[in-house]
Write a structure and sequence with these properties.
Elements (H helix, E strand, L loop, with lengths): L3 H4 E4 L3 H5 L5 E6 L5 H12 L3 E9 L3 E4 L2 E4 L3 E8 L14
Antiparallel strand pairs: 1-2, 2-6, 3-6, 4-5
Length: about 100
Amino acid sequence: MTYAHDIIIKPIISEQSMDQIAEKKYTFCVAKDANKIEIKKAIEEIFGVKVEKVTTANMLGKMKRMGRNEGRRASWKKAVVKLTADSKTIEFFEGMA
């Protein structure tokens, strides 16, 4: 059994994600093996909101160099969650915008 906090890793705070808050869209880094249904249930459980839609994207890690050595940052999964019109907002993001 997976817990909601195992699925939702951290919120993503960027200029683009802050602009989407007006449309009730919130961006999170989620577990790579989580599907849209699990992400929806986890967000509703943690924040007590109603989720209308979830979109996901697998983000490829950037290539990085240290002298001659090349490596890659870890790949991760991003989820953009859209809340319903009658749902309350997520308080965590209130002071950010």
